[in-house]
Amino acid sequence: MKPLLKMKNQHIRNSILLAICLFISGLSLRAQDTAKAEAGEPSVALRYFIKNNSEHYLIVRSNIKVGKKTQRLPNQVIKVFLDSAGPENLLLKTTTDDQGEAKVYVPVERAEKWNASAKHNFIGVLEASSLEDERSAELEITRAKIEMDTITEDGVRSIIVKVSYLEGADWKPAADVEMRLGVSRSGGILSAGTEESYTTDSTGSVTVEFKRDSLPGDDKGNFVLMAKVEDNDTYGNLLVETVVPWGVPVVYNTTFFDQRTLWTTRFKTPFWLLFMAYTIVIIVWGTVIYLITQIVKIGKLSKSEPN
């Protein structure tokens, strides 16, 4: 009986110790989960751009998600790979700026590999922190190009934009690609026609009649036409620009500030404004001088009269 009782007590002690260990482990895991939740969940995002069919680059963003809100995460180290995450495929190891962004170009030494395939996969790896493991994101794109041309028939100006994608060794028309097309302005793109956006047809083309007459340009009447495809799931971001002399020349009058106006220098102040200013100064100082002379006279009179 005693050995059985001893074994039973030992079993109870072991069970209690196991329960205590599990409880402590649960508290530790809960503390780690709480710390991660408070710190937020970091992530990395990739966007591909091609400008004028010659400049290829990526915009890499480091983000952090706290609750339901996603914010930029600055000063993070990110590695960008081409096609596979190996040292031989590393494009660049970079650090994001204060806005959580970094620009990564496809280097010249990768040109042979870039031209060897019609599709590529970019991989961004966010280095591990004290609370999180490394995070990664992938972006697969199909190589594409965007071309722009202009025609004028019977006094009507039109813009033709064509989008093509690479399949094997051939360029084929890219249908159903939405884009913005118009005149480049500081606030964005002023649409060339009546629609805000346009979509390519089965031939990969868009033809838009230019309806922005009497639009100011530079001193020669030039402005920039722009066609822009934004965040396409297959091709990324495509941009093409061309300069056309379709604007109204803006002539800057250099003698404008030599006239007597309110917005010129003090030496070109209008005469009516000078008259008002000097009149006010004379009245104010005249009043002050008159009061001083009267005070002096009163002082003299008080001294000359007998007590």
Describe the SSE topology.
Layout lengths: L1 H38 L1 E11 L3 E12 L2 E4 L4 E6 L7 E6 L5 E5 L5 H5 L3 E8 L8 E8 L1 E10 L2 E12 L2 E4 L4 E8 L2 E4 L6 E2 L5 E5 L13 E10 L3 E9 L26 H34 L3
Parallel strand pairs: 1-17
Antiparallel strand pairs: 1-2, 2-3, 2-6, 4-5, 4-7, 7-8, 9-10, 10-11, 10-15, 12-13, 12-14, 12-16, 16-17
Textual characterization of the structure:
The protein is α+β, with helices and mostly antiparallel strands and 307 residues long. The chain has 3 helices and 17 strands. Among the domains are: 41-142, Immunoglobulin-like; 144-244, Immunoglobulin-like (Sandwich), CATH 2.60.40.10. The protein has helices at residues 2-39, 111-115, 271-304, and strands at residues 41-51, 55-66, 69-72, 77-82, 90-95, 101-105, 119-126, 135-142, 144-153, 156-167, 170-173, 178-185, 188-191, 198-199, 205-209, 223-232, 236-244. The strands form 3 sheets. Strands 1, 2, 3, 6, 12, 13, 14, 16 and 17 form a 9-stranded mixed β-sheet that branches. Strands 5-4-7-8 form a 4-stranded antiparallel β-sheet, with no helix packed on it. Strands 9, 10, 11 and 15 form a 4-stranded antiparallel β-sheet that branches. Mean pLDDT is 85; it is low at 1-5 and 31-38.
Quick description:
This protein has 307 residues and is of the alpha+beta class. Among the domains are: 41-142, Immunoglobulin-like; 144-244, Sandwich (Immunoglobulin-like), CATH 2.60.40.10. The protein is 25% helix and 40% strand.
Tags for this model:
four-stranded antiparallel beta sheet; 40% strand; single chain; Immunoglobulin-like; 3 helices; nine-stranded mixed beta sheet; 307 residues; 25% helix; alpha+beta
